[in-house]
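step=encode ok
step=design start
structure_in=
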């Protein structure tokens, strides 16, 4: 499904209220017992590993020692798995407690906002972001969220090498959020891209990806 060409017959609306709708800031939710439960969850780890396998398929990397940025890494489930596969990983997250939960020094952990990654231009071969984008942009007509998304897109374009890709798996509330993200990408970045929806007719198994390609 390309930007601006989402199937008119396909629509969805998640009724259940999610943490990102209750908490304005991700660090207000992921703290204390909730952070600990999340970081210790074997089921979340397994789910994120499966999503990472799919993300790697979509990225179609040509060699496995590529330098991958895990954007919004949390406790490092995706980063650890990528490292096991032989990738050179840089893990970044806003929540320092996540980065300190496990011993992940070999993953080059960086405590920073993924909208403003402190990385050199042309230093990254690919970006993977699992379950983070909905915290950055989840409300249409929210200028602060729009500005943060634009900053992230432009920053990612700078740090990626020519021809590199970024992929986001995320949980939008509805189709309108996806459409707005697509418009923002087209209007404010130099990426080409599209949405990929797996299991689109099954809400429990549905997985939504945003794939961006740096052509220059």
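sequence_out=
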């Amino acid at each position: 499904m390309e930007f601006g060409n989402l199937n008119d017959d396909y629509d969805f609306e998640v009724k259940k209220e999610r943490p990102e709708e209750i908490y304005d800031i991700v660090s207000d939710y992921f703290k204390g017992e909730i952070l600990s439960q999340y970081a210790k969850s074997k089921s979340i780890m397994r789910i994120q590993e499966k999503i990472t396998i799919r993300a790697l398929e979509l990225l179609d990397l040509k060699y496995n020692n590529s330098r991958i940025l895990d954007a919004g890494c949390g406790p490092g489930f995706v980063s650890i798995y990528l490292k096991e596969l032989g990738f050179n990983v840089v893990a970044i997250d806003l929540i320092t407690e996540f980065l300190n939960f496990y011993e992940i020094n070999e993953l080059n952990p960086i405590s920073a906002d993924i909208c403003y990654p402190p990385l050199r231009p042309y230093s990254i071969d690919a970006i993977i972001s699992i379950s983070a984008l909905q915290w950055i942009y989840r409300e249409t007509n929210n200028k602060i969220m729009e500005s943060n998304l634009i900053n992230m897109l432009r920053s990612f374009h700078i740090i990626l090498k020519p021809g590199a890709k970024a992929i986001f798996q995320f949980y939008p509330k509805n189709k309108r959020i996806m459409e707005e993200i697509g418009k923002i990408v087209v209007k404010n970045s130099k990426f080409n891209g599209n949405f990929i929806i797996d299991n689109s007719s099954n809400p429990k198994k549905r997985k939504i990806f945003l794939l961006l390609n740096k052509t220059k």
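step=design ok
step=annotate ok -> The chain is about 40% helix and 20% strand.
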